[in-house]
Amino acid sequence: MNTRYVNTASSAGGNGTTNGTAGATRAYASMAEWEAARQAVLADSEEVQCCGTAADTTSCTVAGWTTTASFYISIVGNPTDTNGAHAGTWSTSKYRMEIASAAGTNGVWLAEEYSRVASIQVQVTQANVVAGGGRFCYLIDEFATSDMRVEQCIAKGVVSGTNTVGLAGFFGNNGVVRNCLAYDFVNAAEVDMNGFLTFSSLTGTYQNCTGHNCYDAFKRGGGTMVATNCGAAAFTHAGFQGTITQTTCSSTTPTFANEAGDDFHLASGDTTWKGQGTDLSGTFTIDIDGETRSAPWDIGADEVIVAATPMPFPVYQLVRGRSFSVVASGMTPPSGT
Amino acid sequence: MALLLIKAVNATNPDPVKDQRGCYKQWDPVTVYEDSQHNGDLVANPITGPFYLVRVVGATVADLRPFLDPEFIEAVGPLGRRQVTRRCAWGFEPARIPQNIQNTLTRDHYIEVPFTTVQSFLTRKAAR
């Protein structure tokens, strides 16, 4: 595996072999710079780890590579840098891509098979866009066909004005979108605003995804859309639009940790999505935070992790020559993330 | 001012369709940065690898961003979205770049030029 780094605090023109921000080996300053520097016929897998508090403002299209099942591309939020991978909610202290309002522009576009994105945040702004066709935070190309994955990612729409082109968080024609969150894809002027969209003759697979405040949270416009453990909340038109193969999905808004503050972790006391999913541990085991899921699985991108609870009874200690004395007790209620 | 990152070498793919749609070629603009993204100190932060960095005097990021567009056909495919036919619609045309500037770019991978000069180098590939 070749590992390269993107750090938005770096200066342009490094060779990306370290996460540093100075010197010849400094990180690339944007994901697009990494892609242009490294596109090749792969003889080893390629991973790029992204971090930085400044927004990356250029779209990145992964194209022109040759990949295989053994030699694939992986784009991830840096798992070890403080400003790398997000923690399940949109954060301006973590790596993020922010794409301005412009016709035809997307966030991350996977046009090569055997390519993956994980733990990345993408925001697309759309105001009065009337040309260029649909726009997407994450686009899995319908012309590449094998093993394309978007996992633990966040898509956020900032929509205003009059639009006559659609906008979607995840456009997963023939890939797998898993543990992802899409929110705020809604606009009074344009009905084609979707959290998760399939629109081709292929099969898009969605597992444990959450759509919030979208016109349609999940929409099949063509092809086959298979959704398992997916949750649609606070949508304005439909939770699941079109013929979608659904397994343990929900269109009922659950109790989130802080819905008004865009924290869509499940509240520990939720009973709508918590424990209502299908166990997919044969395929994957984590949630949007990277925390290990446990049975019974929850619907949506987040799994409530119950903190270890102290023993709910007094602990007694025998003291020589005296009667029992109570030294500790605990009744801490469970909490989740 | 703004910074324009230019590809200094050809990327190639044995599939000719992939090559045209996906691969950056020498003199293709890759991305634009705010002026603060490099301070011009080439000793501390040399421009390495396959890029030239051009500091464009009198231009903003917004001025330069349209030159990053791919070449495309409108309204095909799902949702009528664009179908890319060439990775970069625009590129520096080598024949328009004076030899002294090419020499500087070859030596330093960095140069500072006015926006009007950059505009005179950039042409639409389809129109060449």
What does this structure look like?
- The complex is a heterodimer of chains A (337) and B (128).
- Chain A has 337 residues and is mostly beta strands.
- Chain A has 1 helix and 26 strands.
- In chain A, the strands form 5 sheets. A 9-stranded parallel β-sheet of chain A has the order 1-2-4-7-10-13-16-19-22, with helices on one face. In chain A, strands 3-6-9-12-15-18-21 form a 7-stranded parallel β-sheet.
- In chain A, a hairpin with a 7-residue loop joins strand 25 and strand 26.
- Chain A is globular.
- The two termini of chain A are 32 Å apart.
- The C terminus of chain A is likely disordered.
- Chain B has 128 residues and is an alpha+beta fold.
- Chain B contains 4 helices and 8 strands; from the N terminus they run βαββαβββαβαβ.
- A 4-stranded mixed β-sheet of chain B has the order 2-1-3-7.
- Chain B is globular, with a radius of gyration of 15 Å.
- The model of chain B has no long low-confidence stretch (mean pLDDT 92).
- Chains A and B meet through helix 1 of A and strand 1, helix 1 and strand 2 of B.
Please name the defining characteristics of this protein.
heterodimer, A: 337 residues, mainly beta, B: 128 residues, alpha+beta, four-stranded mixed β-sheet
Task: State the largest interface.
Answer: A-B, 45 and 47 residues
Principal-axes geometry of chain B comes out as globular
Oligomer: heterodimer
Kindly report how far apart the N and C termini of chain A lie: 32 Å
Spell out the blueprint of helices and strands.
The complex is a heterodimer of chains A (337) and B (128).
Chain A: E1 2-7, H1 31-38, E2 46-51, E3 60-62, E4 73-77, E5 97-99, E6 108-110, E7 115-118, E8 121-127, E9 135-140, E10 148-151, E11 154-160, E12 167-172, E13 176-178, E14 181-185, E15 193-198, E16 203-207, E17 210-214, E18 216-220, E19 224-228, E20 231-233, E21 238-241, E22 245-247, E23 256-258, E24 263-266, E25 315-317, E26 325-328
Parallel strand pairs in A: 1-2, 2-4, 3-6, 4-7, 5-8, 6-9, 7-10, 8-11, 9-12, 10-13, 11-14, 12-15, 13-16, 14-17, 15-18, 16-19, 17-20, 18-21, 19-22
Antiparallel strand pairs in A: 23-24, 25-26
Chain B: E1 2-7, H1 16-22, E2 29-34, E3 51-57, H2 61-64, E4 71-73, E5 83-86, E6 90-92, H3 99-108, E7 110-114, H4 115-121, E8 122-124
Parallel strand pairs in B: 3-7
Antiparallel strand pairs in B: 1-2, 1-3, 4-5, 6-8
